[in-house]
Automatic annotation (TrEMBL):
UniProt xrefs under InterPro entries: Aliph_Amidase/BUP (IPR050345), C-N_Hydrolase (IPR003010), C-N_Hydrolase_sf (IPR036526)
Keywords: Hydrolase
Protein name: Nitrilase
PANTHER family: BETA-UREIDOPROPIONASE (PTHR43674:SF2), NITRILASE C965.09-RELATED (PTHR43674)
Coiled-coil residue windows: none
Pfam families: CN_hydrolase (PF00795)
Species whose genome carries this gene: Paraburkholderia franconis
Gene3D superfamilies: Carbon-nitrogen hydrolase
Segments forming domain CN hydrolase: 9-270
């Protein structure tokens, strides 16, 4: 479908702090936030990773790595649990689509960091995190999540560390995504660098692939109380959010000194999709030159004379260097 036939979409990135294990309270605040978004005319509300259950942190999060499997199991819920159904009911009542995260208890006994996008009409799409870095008890998802909506927009979901790998965003674009939903979570100051990294990287993902990006980040676990009290290293930047256009421009961002559950809002103009240079770059791709990236056999590329200039024996261990010494003679008058 041409982007010219798609209506403008108002999206909200939710600045939301979860308490680990306080699922009932997290769900109640999520539902209240969806109702507030409806009053602001929002069509899609994007919440952070694991916002319903808490218990997830990004790379470098010592808390997430120290959690026992039994502790994580106590937090885990199914994607058809009462928590998700409460969100789906709020979506149906308000007409606001919502993306929410949780630790999923899968039927086969595995656990995932999963993200459920609930659409009006009862449709739901589930993405399982592909790159659960540092979360040793969580399994990896095995597929991309890209789908169409009734507004005409085609959405993709990548959770947290999924966005660290450039290949994942590129695959979403090749599957036709026009809007990337990028929820994230961390457990405090130890992972604050990943928030800054995401703020820098996501505009590049947007322009490289010619799509909008909605980013929602949050602090989980015991850091919540410190943030609410205004204490701790991470108190001033507990949550973060950004909405980026297909040309890599940040439309709106926030997250500094916010107290309580808030949101940032932007109207996404589909006409901007066609102005992004990313689409020209997608069309100019040469998969024949870098198909081996898909197999991981990168070392063999060094020996492939069809794609690369072969090395010479001299180039392997030495580089010829020449120099001259010049002495200036002073002339006495």
């Amino acid at each position: 479908m041409s982007s010219l036939s798609i209506a403008t979409l108002r999206v909200a990135s939710m600045l939301f702090t979860s308490r680990r294990g306080a699922t009932a309270d997290n769900v109640a605040r999520t539902v209240a936030a969806i109702e507030r978004a409806a009053r602001d005319g929002v069509g899609l509300a994007v919440f952070p990773e694991a916002c319903l259950t808490g218990g997830i942190g990004g790379p470098g999060s010592s808390d997430a790595r120290k959690m026992r499997r039994t502790e994580l199991r106590e937090l885990a819920q199914g994607v058809d649990s009462a928590s998700v159904l409460a969100v789906a009911d709020a979506v149906e009542r308000t007409g606001v689509a919502a993306g929410v995260g949780l630790i999923e208890a899968a039927p086969n006994g595995e656990m995932f960091s999963s993200y459920v996008v609930c659409l009006p009409g009862g449709e739901r799409h589930v993405h399982r995190k592909l790159q659960p870095d540092g979360e040793r008890h969580l399994a990896r998802g095995d597929r991309f999540t890209v789908f169409d909506t009734r507004w005409g927009w085609r959405l993709a979901v990548l959770i947290g560390g999924d966005n660290y790998l450039v290949e994942n965003a590129r695959m979403a674009a090749l599957l036709g995504a026009q809007l990337l939903v990028a929820p994230h979570a961390r457990t405090g100051a130890c992972d604050a660098a990943s928030n800054e990294w995401m703020r820098r990287a996501l505009p590049a993902r947007a322009i490289d692939n010619g799509m909008f990006v909605v980013y929602s980040d949050s602090v989980h676990d015991g850091v919540h109380e410190e943030i609410q009290a205004g204490e701790g290293e991470d108190a001033g930047e507990g949550r973060a959010a950004a909405i980026v256009d297909p040309c890599g421009h940040v439309i709106v961002q926030d997250g500094q000194g916010i107290r309580g559950d808030e949101m940032i809002v932007a109207d996404l103009d589909p006409a901007l999709i066609g102005t992004s240079p990313g689409h020209r770059w997608l069309d100019a791709r040469r998969p024949d030159l870098y198909a081996r990236l898909a197999t991981g056999r990168v070392r063999e590329m060094q020996l492939d004379a069809r794609a690369f200039e072969p090395r010479t024996a001299r180039a392997r261990g030495s580089v010829p260097v020449s120099f001259a010494m010049v002495r200036r003679e002073r002339t006495r008058g």
